[in-house]
From TrEMBL:
GO terms for cellular component: cytosol. Pfam families: Thiamine_BP (PF01910). Residues 3-92 form the Thiamine-binding protein domain. Belongs to the UPF0045 family. This is MTH1187 family thiamine-binding protein. InterPro entries: MTH1187/YkoF-like, Thiamine_BP, UPF0045_domain.
Length: 97
């Protein structure tokens, strides 16, 4: 499964990069395949391990922010691995030919 999620601290002002970095640090330390862009962090793995990472990422932000918003989108497709790479490669293949 691939989960794309965004954790946003609320009540801490406009500059939230430092708080978001706490969440991304949790994802990176998880060892699971992941990507971070301007809007979401995507992480790939089995249901329990991915959801554990999301939960710990939220908790990391929650330690310093009075309120946290979580947006989550999941692609649940049993048997598929390396979806973070293969899905993008498929689109790129269609774009180039």
């Amino acid at each position: 499964m691939i989960v794309a999620f965004s954790v946003t601290p609320l009540g801490v002002g406009e500059d939230v990069g430092e708080y978001v970095a706490d969440a991304v640090r949790v994802v990176r330390e998880s060892g699971l395949p992941h990507r971070t862009d301007a809007m979401f962090t995507s992480v790939e793995g089995e249901w329990d391990e991915v959801m554990d990472v999301v939960k710990r990422a939220v908790a990391a932000v929650e330690e310093r922010a009075p309120r946290v918003s979580l947006v989550l989108k999941a692609d649940i497709r049993p048997g598929v691995t390396d979806g973070l790479t293969s899905k993008v490669e498929t689109v790129e293949r269609h774009l180039s030919g």
